[in-house]
């Protein structure tokens, strides 16, 4: 059942984003920033964590989850280290995800030999 819920929630988030992309003049980069900020905002008001516990990977994998992780890291960093935690917290909480994305992206570029568009 967890797989089904994750699939449906993640698919719903992606479908909503696709509708926004198709019906507005917002560029994809701006939509991505909006999603990260929305995830951080929902994490700040305490709504995102219960939702992510229910939806599992369907809520934690999209960019909304990344924003929530950044907020949680910043909050913990400020609690532990004060003002400097404001700058360090987000990096330490999301370092594994960012590092793995870079490593797997590099490996994929070696395997699939990407070419520039003309």
Q: Could you describe the 3D structure shown?
A:
The chain is mostly helical and 118 residues long. It has one domain. 83% of the residues lie in helices and 0% in strands. The chain has six helices and no strands. The protein starts with a helix and ends in a 6-residue tail after the last helix. The relative contact order is 0.10. The chain crosses the membrane at residues 6-24, 31-51, 86-112. InterPro entries: Spore_V_AE (IPR014204), SpoVA (IPR005562).
In short:
The chain crosses the membrane at residues 6-24, 31-51, 86-112. The chain is an all-alpha fold and 118 residues long. Helix content is 83%, strand content 0%.
Give the CA-based shape: globular
Radius of gyration: 16 Å
Tell me the total number of β-strands. Answer: 0
Query: Structural class, judged by helices and strands?
Result: mainly alpha
What does the main sheet amount to? Answer: none
Distance between the termini: 45 Å
Q: State the helix count.
A: 6
Order of helices and strands: HHHHHH
Number of domains: 1
Assign a percent range to the helix content. over 70%
Percentage beta strand: under 5%
- The quaternary structure here is single chain
Low-confidence stretches: none
The overall average pLDDT, rounded, is 88
Topology:
Elements: H1 2-23, H2 28-44, H3 48-55, H4 57-60, H5 63-81, H6 85-112
Helix pairs in contact: 2-5, 5-6
Transmembrane segments: 6-24, 31-51, 86-112
Keywords: Membrane, Transmembrane, Transmembrane helix
Organism: Lachnoclostridium phytofermentans (strain ATCC 700394 / DSM 18823 / ISDg) (Clostridium phytofermentans)
């Amino acid at each position: 059942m967890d797989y089904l819920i994750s699939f449906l929630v993640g698919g719903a988030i992606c479908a909503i984003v696709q509708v926004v992309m198709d019906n507005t003049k917002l560029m994809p980069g701006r939509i991505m920033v909006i999603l990260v900020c929305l995830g951080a905002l929902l994490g700040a008001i305490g709504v995102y964590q219960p939702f992510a516990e229910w939806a599992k990977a369907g809520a934690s994998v999209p960019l909304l989850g990344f924003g929530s992780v950044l907020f949680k890291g910043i909050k913990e960093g400020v609690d532990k280290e004060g003002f400097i935690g404001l700058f360090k917290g987000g990096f330490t909480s999301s370092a594994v995800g960012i590092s793995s994305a870079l490593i797997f992206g590099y490996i994929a570029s070696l395997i699939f030999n990407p070419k520039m568009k003309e």
